[in-house]
Amino acid sequence: MKKVSVAIIGSGPAGLSAALWAKKLGLFPFVIEKASVTGGMQNFNFLENSWVLGQQGVTGVDIAKNFYQHIQKEDIPVHVNLTMTAIKRVFGGFYLEFSDGSSKICESIILANGTRYVGQEILESIPGFEDINRERIIEGPYSFIGMDDLRGQHIVILGAGDNGFENALMLLECGCEVSLIARSTPKAQQKFVEKVLAHQHFSLYEYAKITHFFINNHRMSIKIKSSTEVTVSVDRIHILVGYRANTDSVIDIVEQGLGKKLDCHHNDFLWVDQVSKTNVPGIYAAGDICNTHFPCVVSAIASGALAAKTISRELLKTGVN
Q1: Closest Cα to residue 87, out of 249, 279, 276?
Q2: Which Gene3D superfamilies match (predicted)?
Q3: Range of the domain at 266
């Protein structure tokens, strides 16, 4: 049997699941991770995650460690602090170059780069933002840390999804005043929305946006425009408006090296068919990088497994293994 090498770019739940399944299916996976640790966005999930079957009483950070330990036991190569810098098509596969000057040849590639949380970049064009202390702007999962120390403070949350409303509920329970700015109507689970809306220290601004930042007596104020316009004093702003796909560099690298651009949805989430194939032959994608409908650790695990299974089936069709 020919040794079939599979490059997996990204070591979050999707990437590690793809690596595990590829190994079990008789392939030879190796994982490339740009960060210093594996686990992807799970490393920023500081709360207990009881949504993963069999993983009780553990945080996302714990889950990430458990996944990596499993990969280590399977003796699957994982290269951290490394990025793909170039790609070329060679007979039967791809020639990849990396940031440390090394190179590898593989038959297939699985892109599992995941996502990143949207941050302060969405505020940078608003007048007055340049004068704001950046330590008062909290991004993504860091909004859930140290809430007990915020009693009595006024927190403004940007984002009306599950994360935004769950954050609001937890802050209210800690004795904070909370205002939530929504681009439209709330999109969160009813169990969060109902509890938050009923709280006397909560305000909701629908179809709203921040139009100006001010500093008054060393305190931050913002102007909020919705059906009316109000100015409120704020202690902190929590940005919980979602995620963007980590496809920026990989789209360029593939287009430069192979002369074909990866198809994408909005916010550069990769398009894949029902079995994880992108529009570029030999390149597959798995996990949140291509999942705009149900991104989470559970769907990422399944997506990684599917990508590996698809590669195995494709090789069987061609008689490679």
Answers
A1: 249
A2: FAD/NAD(P)-binding domain (3.50.50.60)
A3: 5-117+243-318
**Separation of alpha carbons 246 and 251, rounded Å:** 10
User: What are the backbone dihedrals phi and psi of residue 195, each rounded to the nearest 5 degrees, phi first?
Assistant: -65, -40
Structure tokens, 148: 């007990």
Residue at 1: amino acid letter: M
Residue 84: enclosing H or E segment and its boundaries? Answer: strand 84-90
Q: What is the CATH number of the domain that holds 164?
A: 3.50.50.60
- The Cα 42–Cα 294 span in angstroms is 16
Q: Amino acid letter at 268?
A: D
Look at residue 321 in the predicted model and tell me its pLDDT: 52
Strands (DSSP E) along 217-267, which ranges?
Answer: 219-225, 229-234, 236-239, 243-245
How far apart (Å, rounded) are the C-alpha atoms in residues 190 and 166?
Answer: 11
Last residue of a domain, one of 239, 271, 289: 239
87 and 15 within one domain: yes
Residues 6+ apart with CB under 8 A from 311: 6, 22, 25, 27, 108, 110, 284
Could you give the CA distance from residue 72 to residue 23 in angstroms, rounded to a whole number? 12
In contact, 43 and 60? CB cutoff 8 Å: yes
Helix (H) or strand (E) holding 248: helix 248-258
CA distance 175 to 171: 7
Tell me, yes or no, if the pTM score tops 0.85. Answer: yes
Per-residue model confidence as pLDDT tens digits over 176-202: 999 999 999 998 999 899 999 999 999
Looking at the structure, tell me whether residues 128 and 113 fall in a common domain: no
Query: Per residue in 224-267, pLDDT tens?
Result: 999 999 999 999 999 999 899 999 899 999 999 999 999 998 77
CA-wise closest residue to 62 among 42, 81, 32, 82: 42
